[in-house]
Amino acid sequence: xxxxxxxxxxxxxxxxxxxxxxxxxxxxxxxxxxxxxxxxxxxxxxxxxxxxxxxxxxxxxxxxxxxxxxxxxxxxxxxxxxxxxxxxxxxxxxxxxxxxxxxxxxxxxxxxxxxxxxxxxxxxxxxxxxxxxxxxxxxxxxxxxxxxxxxxxxxxxxxxxxxxxxxxxxxxxxxxxxxxxxxxxxxxxxxxxxxxxxxxxxxxxxxxxxxxxxxxxxxxxxxxxxxxxxxxxxxxxxxxxxxxxxxxxxxxxxxxxxxxxxxxxxxxxxxxxxxxxxxxxxxxxxxxxxxxxxxxxxxxxxxxxxxxxxxxxxxxxxxxxxxxxxxxxxxxxxxxxxxxxxxxxxxxxxxxxxxxxxxxxxx
Length: 363
Fold this sequence. Notes:
Elements: E1 3-5, E2 35-40, E3 49-54, E4 61-66, E5 73-74, E6 90-94, H1 103-113, E7 118-119, E8 127-128, E9 133-135, H2 151-163, E10 182-183, E11 186-187, E12 189-197, E13 202-209, H3 237-254, E14 263-270, H4 274-291, E15 303-312, H5 321-342, E16 346-348, E17 351-353, H6 356-360
Parallel strand pairs: 6-9, 14-15
Antiparallel strand pairs: 1-12, 2-3, 3-6, 4-15, 5-9, 7-8, 10-11, 12-13, 13-14, 16-17
């Protein structure tokens, strides 16, 4: 497989020798037509938000694969290849646990105003927008249990996406649905990554890293998802020992291990069928397993959405999808690494969640 590194965040080693097709911002918006918007819940004791991935008008082929034992989702059954809906206009990732799924209502209302959705009548305004959504658990992490996303938060996020320029860089770290994310005691957040295959097809991922499992190897302090890359750096033993001590102190202050869930949107400009998109969503879970240990537990809600804009044809080869599948998992791993590296720590009434940078320094 030939992957061209266009992340803008290198240096990552190449998986092949393909030539550069184009450079990009290193995120989900490198898939032409996709836009991303974030919104936070207001308030001093609020630590939650919503992220919306907005498709180009007319929608995209979409699929989903849920492997966590405690998912919180909306409209995921509509993405089953056996069911009616062929294309969707937006995906919502949100904090607030199941309460936060209300944010999808704000996105749905905005889409209706634009006349975007499944046509159900002769009038162009008679549409029903199908808005799949999934949530992470972050309740109370800012100190206010009731500070969680609602329809207004979802509307603000989709409006931010619509107002952004095509290809605009995606904000990472403690933003949007990653505002209150925690991963293995460290502050989590939003991360994104992209690549271009030798075929010219773009594959990208956006994740919300929020898991009871850790992204950090407890033996060394290195990030699991960076092993085998040029950015795999093992901290000095004394730095790692000090970090473990500080992390233990933070966990004692924060109480029991938080509930969790890692969410991802994997996107490509390849022309995929709904069944192929479903396969992509499934294999992309491998990217979570490479970067977080353990995963897919009963109290996880790990969910991956796959989107395909259809701008570029796959090669006339029954195995041509393999390159896209491999890249999808790899981009999820890299996006999780980005999320952990870009997050800022939090120490407040809802708990103490130090960042990787705070404990190990910039790498």
